[in-house]
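Notes, Module 5: Reading structure tokens.

Key idea: the token line is not a picture. It is a compressed description, and you learn to read it the same way you learned to read a sequence, by spotting repeated patterns. We will look at two proteins. The first is printed below with its tokens.
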Amino acid sequence: MTMLPGLEAASLPADAIEVGRIADAWGIKGWFKVLPYSANPEALFAARQWFLLPTEKGPQPFTGAASIAVKESKVHSDSVVACVRGIGDRTDAEALKGSRIFISRAAFPAAAIDEFYWVDLMGLEVINREQESLGTVKELLSTGPQTVLVIESVQDGKPVERMIPFVSAYVDDVSLPTKTIRVDWQLDY
């Protein structure tokens, strides 16, 4: 296994969540630009340890999973920039281009009351007020003003997809412990 300076061989944590990619080097002192997958990348800023997997395309400057110790990460213009221990020049930072960034879910900052990380909603069962199961959350879509739950189920042996706006007018309750979302929505909508 080959490793670049600043990277340590590691295993991805069981609760690892992919949160972004390294876009390119930034400046000459080893900083790099990050493309976060979230509009509010709080997890990137909170975690002091990131895990990397090499890019799927092009040359791979390292193999396997690696861990990096984050010294600083911050917003700069329309992106995020970061520097890590052991990477002190542009050449080493450029070698990380395309690397996928993972963070342990346990390292995410606590969500505020009535706020949820999308990753926590995936796979939850959606139940309406009549106690009918509408299916499970397959994905979430950001439509600008609101988020939409994409619910997947099987009806009469065929896959069915429903979309429910994730707003208080339709969502009565989200219970992470019971892995359920209660909604005001009918099977025939």
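Here is the second protein, with the sequence above and the tokens below, as before.
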Amino acid sequence: MNNDTTLVLGATGKTGRRVAARLRLHGGAVRTASRSSPTRFDWSHPDGWDAVLRGVTAVYVVPPPVPGPVHEFVARAEAAGVRRLVLLSGRGADSWGDGTFGADMRSAEDAVRGSASEWTVLRGANFAQNFDEDLFHGPLVAGELALPAGAVPEPFVDVEDVADVAARVLTEPDGHAGRIYELTGPRALTFAEAVELISRAAGRPVSYRQVSPAAYAAELVGQGWEKEDARQLADMFVVMERGVIADPTDDVAAVTARAPRSFEEYVVRVAAAGGWGPQR
């Protein structure tokens, strides 16, 4: 055990809470922070950042959904003596083009990669857990998921693998400084294929329907989303349909020395727990 303290931002989110649990198990000191944690952290209130960073040697950074704040955060972290930054970003961030989609993650990468501290960037494919912990869950339970995704497959990554990689990089930093890891599952599936696997494992009919990006954005706005946020999410599918981020990588195995979890493994776990409704 060492006396280093690792700060985990987004500590109540999909990756943050899993990373924190792994770090605790490893025996290191962990400071968890989010807007709802006892240690409060809010990207829109930088006056509280210095107290959160005090005594910290490494940070797991989950960036905010707007460009800009990570630059100031990195400067504050360097001034506080932080030696290592591990950033969660999106798969293939440098292949998205010059559109507005992903400007937040590209800005965060620029900030971290320009830091004087050691840094590592973890670029995740779409999370498998989006189907049970996020936006896709409600429609699946209702029986139909409609998205602007067609025949181009996606190598969904299990969040457990993302957390394993993050914890390994944070606790065993040798060899990871200055590296960008593209994290994916072992094979790519279309969204229609993914929904079919969910339907079969859950033992209930669930269908997939492709819609246009414009129709999807309009549906999100109808659900109460801000227009810009809805357009950003719809634009993600436009990027995916170009096929530039469709191929699996070996980066999970390169860091963890084991194969990534398959989408089928994820589906079985969630279905067995009743995540998409009771089995009959």
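Summary for the second protein:
- The radius of gyration is 19 Å.
- The chain is about 40% helix and 15% strand.
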